[in-house]
Fold this protein.
Amino acid sequence: MAHQKIAASVALVTGGAGGIGKAIAEKLAAADVDVVVADVVPQKNNTNNIIYRHCDVTKGADVDALFEWMVQTTGLPDVLVLNAGKDMHEKLTEGDPEKWEYTLQLNVMGVLRCIRAFVPQMEQNKKGDIVFISSVAAGRAYEYGGVYSATKAAVEVIAETLRIETSPCIRVTVISAGITDTAFFNNRGDGSNAESIGMGSMEPDEIADDVIYALSRQRNTVVNRITVRPAKQDF
């Protein structure tokens, strides 16, 4: 994809140490945006205009500390990419509710904590972009996927509510992605991967390109939703 201009100075990408989040961070950096990557996975070095900060979004104190650090160091973000999340592949009658609680904390409460911390400043500035990385699973119940699908359905309701509450100053975009070739499936613990599902897969860069497309539109235009999946994926 050709270089596209983004009218932003600072972006925060949660879960940006690998996979889709890393691809998004790199594309933003290539578009001359200063990027803060918030993740629990350690990174050896900051590169170009990407700065890594340890942050566990399941912990309110971590999000608060990240906010204060950005105030003092980079400035608060005008682009917020809410990407941090994990899969959960357990049958509702057999799984572990303690694992489910952590998934809810990460996939849903992590999103809410970041919104509560960073979006009020965007509203005060009367501008900003918030991108939610969701999944086509939000619209479909499937065996072993109840908890994960429920978290993504919740995220999409949150995103739409935020759009209503902050329009027209804040642009809200949901990227609803299909099967993508990342380490995402490692959380399943069943040895499955993008290839083994048998429906093809996308590369993280493809999702990142969609994010850049939405952010590079004129300020009076908003791309509220992009649904993207492999051509062979049937849901």
Helices lie at 19-30, 60-72, 97-125, 146-166, 194-197, 204-215. The chain has one domain: 10-228.
